[in-house]
Amino acid sequence: MGRKVSALQDDGRPLTGFVLSLRDLWAEAGAPETMKELAARVGYSQPRLSELFNARKVPSDDLLGDVVQALKGDSAVWLVRLKALRVAEERFQAAASRQGDSLEARIARLEEEKKRLLTLTTHPESVIAQAKAADEAAAARALGASNLEAQARALLTEAIDQFRQLHERMPIVQRQADSVIADARAVADRCLLDGRTQQERIVQEANDRAESIIRKSLQEASALKQRTIRETKAQREKAAASVDRLLRGADQLRGEAEQFLQQAETRRSNMETRAKIEIERIIEEAIKRLEAAGANKEVEMLELLLLDFNINDSHTQVRGRHARRPAPDIPPPSQDPRAGTPQPQEAPVEPAPVRHWSPRWGFPPQRS
Questions:
Q1: Measured by CB atoms within 10 angstroms of the end CB, which terminus of the chain is less buried, N or C?
Q2: What is the reported pTM?
Q3: Tally of CB atoms within 10 A around 101
């Protein structure tokens, strides 16, 4: 009989997060339940599937597509996520291999950031898939924390019920001890009454027997009472320790889920801001080319578009290659040297009304 996959901890590696999402897809599918059954269904060996589900190796397109199809998932979406995973895994390995903060290391990090921005602008579906995966993982962790909290509450209720039952049993034990003592005393009294007409020896034996019965009854009652108190205390400490442990686990999972959501939101905001900045750079280049070609009307439209893409006035004073060049000075109208009076000028042309940019115009085509 095949075995199920072992537990896998999230260590922050992109491959580990990808495999955890794939395991969630397997859990939602329900069948097959073991690695052997899955290997028989997809037609791959168990060692290859073990490398995949234990995050030891990035899978190939064919292997991932067959596994996702067997688990009733969308192969196209997972292949897009696999492509993004390969890029993230390369960056992770490069960052892990580099040490120090030299100039070469900084240049390498800037090159990787540039590649990632180009990937975001050309393949936005990978960003959407990553955000969706992050939301699913955060929801799963929040659900796990809620389940742990419910289990902790159930254990606490059970411990309280057991303590109440033990507390209710103590008066019964006390009454039983009192009954034994009363019976012993009654027997002793009867022996004393009967021994008045008998010899002194019989009376003494009756007294000794009564004292022995009373002492034994008191010892048994005391031992039962102490044992009951110890058991009650042990059960109470065990229940309190279990509840504390479960509550700490639930708080830790809740904190991790909140931190994961905050990191996902920060990444999404940073990606959006960088994408807008890249679009502004592309528009600036288009403006320079249109100014060189003399297309002033298109330049005005692109400038309006550039104003709409400004992010919270965070870079209104652009420097470097994004700085705007001043418009060239227009020389005054020349006069005819052969005449003493200036040449007649044409009537001034009314400037065309400025049209504000609207989102339904779309983006202008980018020239190569």
A1: C
A2: 0.31
A3: 8
